Amino acid sequence: MSKKMWMIRAGRGALLAEDFEANNYVAVGWDELNDLSSIKTKDELKKIYKESSYGNDKIGKQRIDFGQIYRFRFEVKPGDFVLTYNSELRNYLLGEIDSDYEYIPNSPGNYNHVRKVKWLGKVRRDSLSVETRNTVGAIMTIFLLGKSAQDEFIKLKDGKVPLQQKDKKAEELEELKKGIMEKAFEFTKDNILSLDWDQMQELVAGILRAMGYKTRVASPGPDRGVDIIASPDGLGLEQPRIRVEVKHRTDTTIGAQLLRSFLGGLRQNDRGLYVSTGGFSREARYEAERSPIPVTLLDIDDLADLLIKNYDNVDTETKALIPMVKLYWPA
Q1: What integer pLDDT is reported at residue 14 of this predicted model?
Q2: pLDDT value at position 13?
Q3: 74 and 37 in contact (C-beta within 8 Å)?
Q4: Which pLDDT value is given to residue 165?
Q5: Among residues 193, 198, 206, which one has the least CA distance to residue 306?
Q6: Which domains does the chain possess?
Q7: Which pLDDT value is given to residue 221?
Q8: Cβ proximity of 229 and 300 under 8 Å
Q9: Is the pLDDT of residue 224 over 60?
Q10: What is the DSSP letter of 124?
Q11: What pLDDT, on the 0 to 100 scale, is given for residue 252?
Q12: Is 43 exposed, middle or buried (CB count within 10 Å of its CB: 0-12, 13-18, 19+)?
């Protein structure tokens, strides 16, 4: 049976990393749980955990924390590989578990649940692939590494793999960035689609204001064909005057007939903007292309893209509809 490799963090901010290295051990906290040496089953451990103050935590936190202390007590085995990270030196200590579970009270940081370790070497974080760095970046105190990450650590410790070339790392980093951006875009669309119809009108108006227009939003009531009027002066007297229709129906595609009806209400010097979170039929897009009055169609993807590109300039009210934070990424 192949050996497992565990990541066991050295306290908050890796404050105990030097203690782990100097004293040849790894440990976890949960100091209210005293000596667990006599605990033989999962149910016994669960009972003790529930009776402690940790049993008052939220259910989700209880499940995560209990799972981690259970792993340390029962699943980590002598002979397994173990990693811990020294964030100050930016290296990972790699070792082998050298003992069964032990309880050593008053250990540094009250990390009293202990396993002895035989340290084998160190691996620089900078030498890892982006994929493995992402894997070991998980925030949990203790977790199991996959085979590819485990193999990479073993090879690097033995000096069998040179440091990756800079262009290879840049390529991996770019792929990771692309994946995160795609997920962020989908989450943005999800949040837009969760808005009420009147909030959707306000969102579209807010994006137009961020693009330099002043807007008038129609009062709630019967649909009169135009939901927003945008223009340089806010009165619709200066050109370009944009008449905006907003349809927030995720299960309804706008067809040619509805678009023709909208176009029929536009005047010669108007510009049209039709927003449909349900998208447009091919015939409707054809109608827009051959319309003598310029009209732009925006589906949910277009709307999310416009929001992201103009988010720095949208006002506080619009940001409150779709709160977002900026993510900085290494260049």
Answers
A1: 82
A2: 79
A3: no
A4: 46
A5: 206
A6: 5-164 (3.10.590), 193-321 (3.40.1350.10)
A7: 53
A8: no
A9: no
A10: E
A11: 84
A12: exposed
